[in-house]
Target: ATP-binding cassette subfamily B protein
Amino acid sequence: MKTALRGIWLVVAKSVRVSPWQSLLCMAESLGGVISLLQPLYLAWFVDGVLHHDTGKMALAVAAVAASTGLSGALNMAGCDARVRQFERVGFAFDTEIARITASIPTLDHLESSKYLDQLQALRDQQGALGGALNSFLNTFRNVVFAGGTLVLAAGADARLLLLVLAGLPSVVATRWIVRWQARAEEESAEPGRLATHLLELSTTAGPGAEVRVFGLREVVRARLTDAVARWRAPMVALARRTEVVNAACSVFFFGCAVAVLAWMVHDAIRGQVPVATLVLAVMLVGRLQNTANVLRWSIGNITQLARTTGRFLWLRDYEREVREAHDGTQAPPAILRDGITIEGLAYAYPEAVEPSLRDVSLHLPAGSVVALVGENGAGKSTLVKLLTGLYRPTAGRVLVDGVDLADLDLPAWRARVSGAFQDYAKVEFTAQESVGVGDLPRVDDDREVRRALREGAGEDVLASLPSGLATQLGSSWPEGVELSGGQWQRLAIARGMMRTEPLLLVLDEPTAALDAATEHALFERYAEAARAAGGRGAVTLLVTHRFSTVAAADLVVVLDGGRVAEVGTHAELVAARGHYAELYELQARGYR
Ligand SMILES: Nc1ncnc2c1ncn2[C@@H]1O[C@H](COP(=O)(O)OP(=O)(O)OP(=O)(O)O)[C@@H](O)[C@H]1O
Model:
């Protein structure tokens, strides 16, 4: 109930914010409903006038029917029109807000959890549904007003008619089941729905298209897609079938009761105990009373649906607030690093993961140092990088920036002092200038800076190959857009990471995997030189790589193994120690001989 009230308040407040005047006009429909409510009464007056040869009463009844029909028709039309318009505008306002909230959640954890992804999928699947929630509320409001009026009219005509309200109760109870089935069906559909979207992407986008064809996966993908779509639709189809059966049973029960009550009243009318006008009114009201039962049913259904839809939105909003509050640090990051970054007992487990991916990691990354992070696939390197950049919240332990806990720092301000290139780099399909320039938004239009970043990020060749230079639109799906190779996209991502000139933490998480070993080595040497030259700022440069030739140039090498720190030292120290690092280094060196 509390969720439903919160949901109603949410949609009504949004509607008023979008347009107070249209919101008011939407209510005109309910007023029209109230006016038309009294029509059976006018008909009863008319019948009474006929029976008692009272032309005045007949004329009054006709005038009342004509006036109420005209007025309620006009109000209905105006209200309905306003409602349709308002419903779209409110839906759009909510969809925009969902996009804003999703993008502004400062961490990435929610995008790694299937529970959160299912909720987001349900919100995305039901695009415009929050506008529909306003519609549901307005319908419910109109229906409840109408139902209440009908009940008053029925009670005034003959109390036995109220028995028909009881006859409608099974359908009200059934609605609660239907709503529950509906919720379960939506939940059951969410995961296969995501799978179907993923498979559709696999079979219709160019990127995975090559592997799908080379490995002959078309049939497998098609079969899985058919299965996923079937699993996606099946709960809904089953729900529709069950709902129809239950509804039909409820209608049969109601009409059985209605026939019995009317027969009872006819019996009394024959004996002169019930006036004919009342009988006419009763016949007219039977349909409306069934409607009243349906209305109550729909209202429960509508409000529960509204509560569920708005509940997902409120969940998203609350989640964003919760994440923001968990990162409520306000301290500004230091202008320069003096001590460096200290990691104390850090652990991280991905949402729903059984085992933590990082545990008990303690390290000191001295100010001004170039640190190489190595380890086999799945050792936890990228996870550590994301914790240092504040993209994940540690499960345990902390990260200290010059002695200040990262949790106490203002997260956006810390992010503004972090730069780099990531393993899952983004293909930003803007112009080349913007694609690189967004690495430092205030200087996105500064083409000298963009060219410098391209130079430092080994992206000059890419620029030279673009037909309109920095003005070239990237991405073949856009008009005159140019597609780039994987390595070219990656170089642009590296250049983007070079846009900020004063980072305190520069992260290079395997940004060079698509480059040859010599280019990677040269690039890293350049980073290391630049980092040492900028030693006054104390920036820490963190390079994640699998190439040991590159690692040798680092001041400090950290070896991760199974989520723990296995070794720490300089390249020379670790080779001399003849441990895991020396073994991996020797293996790779042998490969090059
Ligand atoms: N989104 C995720 N959800 C659950 N587990 C994850 C997720 N991402 C990574 N992991 C797990 O965390 C562990 C560490 O992964 P991480 O990506 O940090 O390794 P890595 O050392 O960077 O590997 P690679 O060299 O392959 O990039 C792995 O066991 C991986 O399965």
